[in-house]
Amino acid sequence: MTVRFQRLIIILLSLIFLAGAIILILINSKNNLVYFFTPTELINSQSEIDRKVRIGGFVKVNSIKKNSKNNTYSFIITDNQNDIKVEYNGILPDLFRESQGAVIEGILVETKKINASRVFAKHDENYMPSSIKKQLKQSNFWQNDYSPKPLFDQELPNFEINNLFDETKKLSKFDINNNQVLINFFASWCAPCKIEHPLFLELKKNYPDLTIIGINYKDVEEDAKKFLLLKAILIPSLE
Question: How far, in Å, CA of 135 to CA of 55, rounded?
């Protein structure tokens, strides 16, 4: 066997190993590829059972159920056209709520059922895990611009709200007049709100003429009261 022939054999074997490695990489990439769907798209796609998928939508009202024995949750993700049932074993995110947006990642076990391995909760329409958002942008799916638009020289709309601790007291647009006012929407389940609260108290201390109005948003009344009272006890120096 000549040296030239030996070199040719080595080159051919190297090419075979290289081709095999590329094929394995492609197969592995295909197996690990996770597609993103809305519930309607998932149903229409006829995706393979036991395949890993991601779906996004809203948590259907009155659909959350908990099995306290094994810490398993079941709920429904909807896009207002079709529903997907989800089962999840673990701790749900703090911001996970009915009527709120959520992204679910897991295994499709039936046409309309997913066993979730990860649950992402959306605080508002702008929230999306970075990896999922990148995937949606690449597929031109993420095109809606929900960024808040600044409103200048706009008249304050009419409103009337009850005092959280005294329902006989009300606050309306006409009580504010031309005062300097800061309006903040908060909830006991909102993680950023827990960080903001002492800052508002400090702001009020430094600027006593500033009127700060807190509007409780999608919260249980008793939880909201406990949240405010607890903060007042923990930070008495800022009262």
Answer: 13
Q: How confident is the model at residue 154 (pLDDT cuts 50, 70, 90)?
A: low
Q: Catalogue all structural domains in the chain, each as residue range(s) with its CATH number.
A: 32-138 (2.40.50.140), 160-238 (3.40.30.10)
The whole-number average pLDDT for the span 218-237 is: 69
pLDDT value, residue 214: 86
User: Are 52 and 34 spatial neighbours (Cβ–Cβ below 8 Å)?
Assistant: yes
Judged by DSSP in three states, 150 sits in: coil
Question: Strands (DSSP E) along 61-153, which ranges?
Answer: 65-67, 72-78, 83-89, 101-110, 113-121
Identify the burial level of 151 via C-beta atoms within 10 angstroms of its C-beta, where 0-12 means exposed, 13-18 middle and 19 or more buried: exposed
Asked whether 93 and 120 are in contact (CB, 8 A), the reply is yes
Token look-up 């200048």 returns: 152
Q: Are 108 and 50 in contact (CB under 8 A)?
A: yes
Residue 232 contacts residue 239 (beta carbons within 8 Å): yes
Average pLDDT over residues 62-74: 86
Q: Give the whole-angstrom CA distance, residue 223 versus residue 169.
A: 20
Asked whether residue 128 carries a pLDDT value surpassing 80, the answer given is no
